[in-house]
Each structure stands twice: as structure tokens, then as C-alpha cells.
Amino acid sequence: MDSNDQQYLDRVLEVTRRYVSTSVKMSNDMHEYQNSLELEKIFDPSVLLNPVERSQFRDKLKKLVAMFDGYKKYYQTYVVNLTRDMLVIHSELPPEQQKEVTERFMASVQARISEQSCFYTLRQRWVDAVYALLDLMDSSKDCYFDGQSYCFDKDTDIERFNTIMQEINDVSEMEQKIQQARMERVGKNMNILGS
Fold first, then answer.
1. What is the DSSP string of 59-121?
2. What CATH number did the domain enclosing 124 receive?
3. Which run of H or E residues covers position 20?
4. Contact yes or no for 101/93 (Cβ under 8 A)
5. pLDDT digits over 140-164, tens only?
6. Among 194, 143, 182, CA closest to 27
7. Is the model's pTM score more than 0.70?
8. How many domains does the chain have?
9. Is the separation of the CB atoms in 175 and 123 below 8 Å?
């Protein structure tokens, strides 16, 4: 490897480390904030059966959506800046290498954008399902929890409740798979980068 190749690799590693570090911090901050909202409490009967608690939970959902809107803007800027910085570095490669390296890099960027878009879609589906659950509980005045399950006067409400809960569970499973794959990829990249 000649000194130009080493300089190129050093620059790629420096930019990659910087962006991975920033991304990990932002992701950790986002998860910390999300955890502070205690969203798992939506499944607690003391929340679902209490109109005041349901109203407060709606406020938490609004905060969650606002946080994700901010994160989306951050992510767009992040991708644009990362792409710009890496393309500048790639432009210094010999023409015969430049095309292949740039195409591989852009394919990787597109894969991350698609993954992130899927995550946003899933998160919105989860929020929509929780709003639907809150709406159902608002309209089902005689609903109660018997210690094991929620009981409704109308079969249609039971069916709706089960459908909503299935959506929440399905979305949560898909989000966990995306998060697991992302964490494995980040861990692998951090090992490669020596971070």
C-alpha cells in the first residue's frame, strides 16, 4: 500500500469514526428520551382504564412524535453531510477505482435510508395503534380488567381491542428485529474501526 492509499484510508476511517460516533450518541439519546416517557405503561390497566391517565398518555405520544420529527430532520442532515464528506474523499481516488467505490458507498447509504424509512413507518404504525387503543378505551365506558384480560360489553370492541394489540405486538417485533440488525452492524463497524 502506498502513501496515497494510506492517506485515503485514514481519511475514510476518520470521517467514518466521526459519523458513527455521532450516530450512536444520537441514537442513545433518542432511546433514553423514549425510555423516559415510560411508553410500556400503556399496557397497565391503571392507565388504560383511567381517563386522566389516558389523556396524559396522549401527551406522551405527542412528545414521542415531536422527538421523532426532530430525529428525522437530524438524520436527513446527517446523511447529506456524510455523503458529501465521503464523496469528496472518493473523488480523490483514481478514476478506475472511484466509480466502484462510490457505487458501493451509495448502495450502502441507500440501504440505511431504506432501513430508517421502514423504522419511521413502523414507529408511526405503533403510535397510530396506541391512539386507536386509547380511542377504544375512551368509547368503551364499561370496560374493566378482570385480573387477566380486558372485558368489554360489545364483541366488536373485543375484536377491535385484539386487532389493535396484535398490531402493536407485530410492529414491536419488527422494530426489535431492525434494532438488533442495526446494533450488530454498528458493533461490527466499531470493531473494524477500532473504536
1. HHHHHHHHHHHHHHHHHHHHHHHHHHHHHHHHTTS-HHHHHHHHHHHHHHHHHHHHHHHHHHH
2. 1.20.120
3. helix 3-36
4. yes
5. 988 999 999 999 999 999 999 999 9
6. 182
7. yes
8. 1
9. yes
